């Protein structure tokens, strides 16, 4: 620790912490940092050597996007899909140390890892093999490692990080002293980002970054811009937070928040429950922001006490002492946005090929036809759907139920010709409504609880629509109807808040101005619309007893989970013909002090803008791909191939996917497209995978050469580590996506850039041999490559993209994880 350490007493216990107020006294400019940057400042100072503290202070004071900062997570949250590939790689490291007799001591994760397993598949028989392979492996690593916790398949898992797992503050013992610091976490999906609604900074990162985090290292990223959104006012009549999100979405898209942090603050926050803040945090991620953060306030503390059944006074005291509690003024944001909730208008979206967004008040003006059938007519509602499988906010559901309650009090109901359904995300939502005694009001309106695939309308109505070519209506809060066979029959599909779904259904058609005209006789929307105060009163009734019941024995699992048998051996016994979980050993710590690559062959010559999906495909595995042929050889039918993402934990499948995109243009074999290259010795054209096997037999290294902007697109660890498994030692490009270049270094592949030349100027054809022989490895160095073609020998200079001393060390050791584990060799 350093000179900024301070302490305080609480309940006769002494707690130490890195005091931000002391830092602000030393550097007053930092006092006005946004909340998220203060959290990042605290952890960067706390984890920095004393002689480098001034450098950190200057970076945060200048807030330049050209600077990089560390993100140091103290917890990792993963879903099942992303956890298994990561943990297979981690477990293989211990296999390496054990088999090589390097160390008998088990290497443990340095941070806590929570794996939240998806709900058990409904079609158990169809997914039995996938479940068995994944679940068996997950149970094995949970038993083997002390810092890995598995939350088994459970109906309650979708919000478990928000409602149960998060602790808000972390404790550490250093020299027999207890230190407090903010809980900060990372992961790969919404489990790690919805936590920003609770005042915990959580970011999504790639699996390669997570590998470093497991060993208590850090992720670096460019110093982020922070946009402040000041929330004012409260919701007006007819408005829900779904409408607020839709309005805000337009603002954020126009602002281009890619890679930026968004912070919400202001007096209006007191009217937004934690459950509704989740909607805001999710929207920021959807719009490609880094984090949608809500500073901790009284709502947060009440929520923690309600869901955990604890006294959160220590949490509140710590964040207040650090100026991290909502209410601090004079924050300087890079950009500011004002959002006055009282000025927003309800929105509906017409779901069609090109979606059309309009204000509710203008809906009736959009109607153009008024034909009549025997039972129904144009603009009449025939399907009313509340779909909570995509809408996780309990307040939206409570708001809809309160409208149903008031309608029931007035004695008004929904026409029997309207099919009325509700789909729950899980039984938890249903249990919430039962505990609050609200479900009965939906049932009084004849809403039927169904599975998402059971949406229907009556046969007589369907025949009437077809016979008279009617433009009838579905009102819903989700886009599910677009994927339903009824979408061809019901031409007007309006998406709106659950509350408005019920309000329109009470009227039975959309041919009226709902904010001005009556729903039934002299009853108007204003008569049945609940205030936010009413909604929040019901949210407050969700006390600890409900959450205690939901999360009792949460780590135990059901009988299916308990019945899964797993090995207790030191090394995991992978099934020979496993299709979902299998490994190829690639971990190997090196001690390179020179670069000696001799007679490397060119695997591919690629054009500009090659993205990560070109390198490692996503989506369904096509029937004639190398992966498909391999899966067929294991006895799988084409309908069992699944997606590449579902096979990420099986290296034998994934290695065959690398550079196998059906549209990939490899200049070596063009005009033939796809994952092919040429063996110039035999003249045979073959798959990249088969060629790599041939080269491995005689230990020939491989090179990939490309144009500008190599490695664009989504984070995909297989697009990098797959090249390593193929035997690629060097990637040369005219320019790289910076993130992809960093990932190449992390797996021990040398990235080089052309200085003046390119594929065309060098007239490369793919039959060249490339060699490097140098005794120095330095940052930002120039590297000479000898290129031999027939009897012609050229030496071309390239720019090394090892850009700092740490990247040099990564490369010397064979990769980032290998570097982090170098001490285990001693």
Characterize the structure shown.
With 826 residues, this protein is of the alpha/beta class. It folds into four domains: 5-68, no CATH class; 71-343, Aconitase, domain 3; 347-547, 2-Layer Sandwich (Aconitase, domain 3); 595-825, Aconitase, domain 4. It contains 29 helices and 31 strands. It has a seven-stranded mixed sheet with strand order 17-16-22-21-18-19-20, sandwiched between helices. It has a seven-stranded mixed β-barrel with strand order 23-26-27-28-31-30-29. The chain has a five-stranded parallel sheet with strand order 6-5-4-9-10. α4 packs across α8 (207-214). The longest helix is centred in the N-terminal third of the chain and has 20 residues, at 80-99. The chain is globular and about 95 Å long. Residues 121-125 have low confidence and may be disordered.
